[in-house]
Amino acid sequence: MKNLINFLIQYSVVFLFLFLEVISFTMIVKNQEYQKSIFLSSSNSAVSGMYEWSNSVVEFFKLRAANDNLSEENTALKNQIINLENKLSTLEPRTKDSIHFRIPPEMEYQFISAKVINSSTNKLQNYITLNKGTRDGIRPDMGVISDEGVVGIVKTVNDKFAVVIPILNPKIEINCKFKRSNYSGPLDWSGEDYRYANLKDIARHVELALGDTLITSGYTSTFPEGIPVGNIEDFKIKESDAYYNIKVKLAVNFRTLSHVKVINYLNYKEQKDLEKASEEQNN
Questions:
Q1: Are the C-beta atoms of 169 and 144 separated by less than 8 Å?
Q2: Whole-angstrom Cα distance, residue 3 to residue 85?
Q3: CA-CA distance, 248 to 232, in Å (whole number)?
Q4: CA-CA distance, 222 to 263, in Å (whole number)?
Q5: Phi/psi class of residue 112: alpha, beta or left (left: φ > 0; alpha: ψ in -120 to 50)?
Q6: Which of 29, 68, 194, 209 is the most exposed place for a label (fewest CB within 10 A)?
Q7: Which CATH number is 105-268's, of 3.40.50.2300, 2.40.10.340, 3.90.550.10, 3.30.200.20?
Q8: What is the C-alpha to C-alpha distance for residues 212 and 20, in angstroms, rounded to an integer?
Q9: What is the Cα–Cα distance from 79 to 137, expressed in whole angstroms?
Q10: Is 108 in a helix, a strand, or coil?
Q11: How buried is 39 (Cβ within 10 angstroms: 0-12 exposed, 13-18 middle, 19+ buried)?
Q12: Mapping DSSP to helix (H, G, I), strand (E, B) and coil, where does residue 282 land?
């Protein structure tokens, strides 16, 4: 208490000055119409600025929820479109008055929408965590894509979450092909730049051009044919080399990735069981 009294005595002049300033300002604003209007205008501007800031914060969180809903709706619409396209492309006459659909088994797949809740791009072995798991129908070895192109492959899953190995991980290779020539080869990541990967095993007789588009080959059950992978950024070959050294700019920007689609290949188990049985017979 004694220290407080000493503090007030020591700074009494300052407090008196501030008190008189407040009184003077109040009297000026109260008695002078011009100053009063300026004060009210400034106050309104400050208050409106605060309201605008608070509304921006609220809208930001609403926007995140809207994006999640749009992703779910987009996935549902995409599933419907795929189903209709498959039916239209495989329409066959059965009798004079009836028709039936015979969809190729490799085209029977659906998408499961998911949100990226954790990811990395600056490590040698990067991973992505999704907010969906087994209760949503996700299992290991499912392909993962975004609206831009191929993302990676599901590695492990529990009830609520899934961990994806993206293209930005040397542990996986994505089999892809040139859109204009169908020549295929494996794509892997060297661990350097998250924007680029390398295409291997492309023989020197294959005609290449900068900007050529790469898509999934459809040779595996992970990805259907035709999903964008990237474009040729650069390619080189020496006189003594049999294969090109090809640099590919990836279609997906992994630094801004927020929503993905997991590919549910409906005939996965049936195909794998048959392939396994065939291998066992050969052994």
A1: no
A2: 84
A3: 5
A4: 8
A5: beta
A6: 209
A7: 2.40.10.340
A8: 77
A9: 15
A10: coil
A11: middle
A12: helix
Q: What is the Cα–Cα distance from 167 to 89, expressed in whole angstroms? A: 31
Residues 6+ apart with CB under 8 A from 181: 206, 207
* DSSP reduced 3-state for 186: strand
* Angle between helical axes of 2-10 and 12-31 (0-180°, round to 10): 60
pLDDT tens-digit series, residues 120-168: 999 999 999 999 999 999 999 999 999 999 999 999 999 999 999 999 9
DSSP 203: B
Q: What is the DSSP string of 206-230?
A: S---TT-EEEE-S-SSSS-TT-EEE
Per the CB < 8 A criterion, the answer to whether 265 and 214 are in contact is no
Query: What is the spatial distance between Cα 188 and Cα 181, in angstroms, rounded to a whole number?
Result: 20
CA distance 174 to 172: 7
Cβ neighbors of 81 (< 8 A, separation 6 or more) are: none
What one-character-per-residue DSSP string does 229-253 give? EEEEEEEE--TT-SB-EEEEEESS-
Q: How many CB atoms lie within 10 A of CB 181?
A: 11
Closest listed residue to residue 249, CA positions, set 235, 266, 262: 235
Task: Write down the mean pLDDT value for the chain.
Answer: 80
> Could you read off the pLDDT of 201-214 as tens digits, one per residue?
999 999 999 999 99
| Cα Rg of the chain, angstroms | 31
219: nearest Cα among 176, 269, 264:
176
